[in-house]
Design a protein that fits this description.
The structure is a homodimer.
Chain A (H helix, E strand, L loop, with lengths): L5 H11 L8 E2 L2 H7 L2 E6 L9 H10 L3 H4 L3 E4 L3 H12 L4 E6 L4 H9 L3 E5 L3 H15 L2 E2 L6 H18 L4 E5 L4 H13 L4 E7 L4 H8 L23 H8 L2 E5 L1 H15 L9 H7 L9 E6 L13
Parallel strand pairs in A: 2-10, 3-4, 3-6, 4-5, 7-8, 7-10, 8-9
Antiparallel strand pairs in A: 1-2
Helix pairs in contact in A: 1-3, 1-8, 3-5, 3-8, 5-6, 8-9, 9-11, 12-13
Chain lengths: ~325, ~325
Amino acid sequence: MPIPDLNTIQLAAERIRPYIHKTPVLSSTGINEITGGNIFFKCENMQKAGAFKSRGACNAVFSLTEDQLKKGVGTHSSGNHAQALARAASLRNTDAFIVMPETSPKVKVAAVKAYGGKITFCKPTLQAREETLYTIISNTGALEIHPYNDYRIIAGQATAAMEMLEVMGKADIIMAPVGGGGLLSGTALSTKYLSPETIVIAAEPEMADDAYRSFHEGRLIPSESPATIADGLLTSLGSLTYPIITEYVDDIVTVSEEGIIRAMRLIWERMKIVIEPSAAVPLAAILEKKVDVEGKTVGIILSGGNVDLDSLPWL
Amino acid sequence: MPIPDLNTIQLAAERIRPYIHKTPVLSSTGINEITGGNIFFKCENMQKAGAFKSRGACNAVFSLTEDQLKKGVGTHSSGNHAQALARAASLRNTDAFIVMPETSPKVKVAAVKAYGGKITFCKPTLQAREETLYTIISNTGALEIHPYNDYRIIAGQATAAMEMLEVMGKADIIMAPVGGGGLLSGTALSTKYLSPETIVIAAEPEMADDAYRSFHEGRLIPSESPATIADGLLTSLGSLTYPIITEYVDDIVTVSEEGIIRAMRLIWERMKIVIEPSAAVPLAAILEKKVDVEGKTVGIILSGGNVDLDSLPWL
């Protein structure tokens, strides 16, 4: 299967349209004054299941035939992909087997259960997660849907930037956070297909900078004990996302933990919307002057809004 | 001056259009499932200065001539009207004299200052607020712009329901919170002019139930030591808002403090938007079964989003 082309992304958009929100694109006079840019925010925090992950999960699950889906789908995830996959599977009346670390926040476990996901807990290591999933898949015959290293997922995530560009018309810069690279590779593909002169910049926490190092050193370097408040960005780039990012992304910058918290709070205060720390990373890069937006039209994908309201990072 | 008619409200909408946001109308599958209704939320939390108050303040200030504005405008307010008036005055390049109780939260004082308001602090009693404002007005010649007991303010606030009805098309019930009654009277006028068969229901905290008692006892009863987390709803109905509410509102119900917090959190969690406690009061009434929305199309005005992120009510 080749890298998703424009037609593949447009087909993904058609396929998932009935099952996702066309999320709003908002802006804030106050944030524009602070940054000097003309910034548009694509509110994937308001997406179904609270994150852009519903796009990829729906595209993957709705690409499968009834027969392929008979034994269900599976993944290991402590985060937004778990919820999104559980929801997509329930829309197709099939099982979602979700392996979650036993340390997962209760609120995330409850959300996966609410969408009908069948949860198996495991020790909080990558090895335990992969082994547990392997066992489940062997026993059930379920299909694995990887959170990002899958072209169907990438094509689904690409639809967010496509919708944003439709609203913006013209953009000097498009920004997204980067974890495993599913959102970033999709965003870069859509942007370069639809608006080749637009610069694509990713932002990543300093404390989980595998994409930054991989991009700048020119080889795939996995994450080593990442520790950031941006819990959606702990994963490493994959074998499918890394090459797309190398070819289609113009730059990757990193931000401090304090910068993420400050940007997150600024968006809550000025825009009156709830975003999770990962979603604040691109604005943090602007506030920390890692990206110059003076006089520029900028689109930022706010990746998600799933945050524990009982423990906010500034408290 | 007579009660604002439809033409007056439409003129207010024209007048304020360049200075306010046409705020989004959002809905939530999750909240619809919980309540059994088909609920639309008018997001005045995303309004300029964070609340519907910008509508009334802009309508009042932009109704005045250069000459009338020469000596500035004034009000006493610890809340959203103060910010909205300071902003509206600065748009007309005139002074806003704002009397605030010395106990006002720092965040609200800072917001008024950011819009260029000239603050005078006073003791936190209604008498001190009124006397301080009277002195300032006597000394400066500024015009008082009352937060709600003013037809220009009421006509401005009425534009929120008008916009919501445009988006909804048809509504069985329209709901708003009630404090001084500016938003509620405007909402009731717009609704009954544009959609006479729609029921208008107000919701009020039990702990500040002067409007509830006034409405049901048929006489204007002032608030007595109200004490609710919904800090936008502490004021009493006015001589202009009470008669409109008596004539145009179908019912007023009350809700518990726990209900307000629960509804507020539900909106944050499910809709990923930041609202203040006052804005949660109508949904609280639905969750507490004070209003039956089963199978009904309901519009709720989310009045504002100015909340201190350092002290959330559920923490």
